[in-house]
Design brief:
The chain is of the alpha/beta class. It contains 21 helices and twelve strands.
Length: 478
Amino acid sequence: MTDQPRRHRPAKTYRRPQKDPVRILAFEALRAVDERDAYANLVLPPLLRKAREGGDFDGRDAALATELVYGTLRWQGTYDAIIAECVDRPLREVDPPVLDVLSLGAHQLLGTRIPPHAAVSASVELARVVLGDGRAKFVNAVLRRIAADDLDGWLARVAPPYDEDPEEHLAVVHAHPRWVVSALWDALGGGRAGIEDLLAADNERPEVTLVARPGRAERAELLDALGSEGGVPGRWSPYAVRLAEGGEPGALDAVREGHAGVQDEGSQLVAIALANAPLEGSDARWLDGCAGPGGKAALLAALAAQRGAMLLASERQQHRARLVERALHGNPGPYQVITADGTRPAWRPGTFDRVLVDVPCSGLGALRRRPEARWRRRPEDLEGFAPLQRGLLREALNAVRVGGVVGYATCSPHLAETRAVVDDVLKGRGAAAASAEWIDARPLMPGVLALGDGPDVQLWPHLHGTDAMYLALLRRTA
C-alpha cells in the first residue's frame, strides 16, 4: 500500500493593519503626556490642527480624539485597577506604550457608547500599527476580559466597600488618588454626598468660558456673534459668556483681536472682586505680581483703564511674560509688563493701591481641565510650594500702601495652600504682614451662592461651575 500524500493547509495571507487616524492621534497624545510630562491641553491642539490641515479629520473625528485622550487620562487610575485584574504580571512590568493602548481600549469599552466588538477590534488594529502583531495578541486577550463586564460591575470588584474604606472607595470609583480625595474632603467638609458631587464634577468636561474685556468688547457683542445656539451669558461674572459644546473661541474676531479671551468664570470673579474692594484715597497704581499667562492681568488692565489707573504685570518666567504681553496688547489704558521675581521685588515698598498674587500651586482646583495632573502631583509637592506662597504674600503686603488692598488667590482648595498660608503670614512674619486685616470677599461676588462663612471665599466646580479658585482679601492697616 502506497503512502498517501500529506495535505497542507494553505498559508493565511497576511493582512496589513488598518490605520485609524483618530486612535493613532490619541495614542500619540498619550505618549507625549507620559514621556515628556506634557499637558494634554497643550499637546492635543497642534495634533488636531495638523490632522485637519492634512485632510484626515473632520469635526466628529476631532471630538472623538479629544474624548479618547481626556477620558483615558481622567480615568487612568480606575482603568489601571481594572487592567491589573486582567493581566498576569504587575502593571509596572507592562511596557508603557502597551498600557496606553490598553487604557485607550478600556475607555472605549467602559466610558463610551462604542460597541464592545468595535472597541476591541479598533484597539487591536491600533496595537498592530504602533506595537506590532505579537503584542497586539496580548492587547486582544486583555481587552476581551475587560469587555466581559461593564464599568459598574468592574467597580464592584476592584473598589473596596465604602463602609470599610471610604477614601479608597471614592478614589477608585471616581478616579482620584487617595490623597487628593482626602485633601478635597478636608477642604470641603460635610458628608459623603458633597465629596461625591465634587469628584463627579472633576470628571466632567468643563465648559469653555469667554471674558469680554471691559472697554474692548461687550458681552452682548459676543453673544450676537455666537448666535442663540452658540453661547449664553455666564452665571456670575457680568463679562462671561459660556460657549455651547463644540464652540470654537478662535473663530470669533473679538478673540483673535484680543478684545475677549478664554477665561474661567472663577478666575474672572477673583479679578473683579479685587478691583471692586473698597478703597480710600488713591487708586492709580495696580500690580499683578504673578501675571502669567495673562488672563487675570488682561481683565485687571481693562478694569484699571476705566478708572484711569495703570497696571504693572510682573511675571518671573520670561516665556510666560511674553504670554502676558500678548494678552494685554491693545489695552485701552496704560500698562507695563516686566520679568521679575515677586519674592525679590523690582519696586519700592508701599507703591501700589491694589495688588493681586495668584500664586503657583498644586492646581488641584483645575483637575477638570488638566486631568493628568491628579496622577502627576504628590503630597510632598505642597511642601515645595509653601515657602514660595508665603513669600509672595508677604511681599505683596509690603508692596501695597497703607489702606491698600491685596488679593491672595490660588487655583487649589487644599487647606495648606489657602487659609493656612494667609493665617501664617498674618501672625506677624514681616512688619507689613503684621499690620493687615481681613476684608470680607463675599459681598464682592454678588449673586454667587454658597460662599461659606467668610471672610475668604472658596469656589467649587460642583457648586459654582467654576474651577476651585480661592480668594482672600487683605487691607494693610499701618
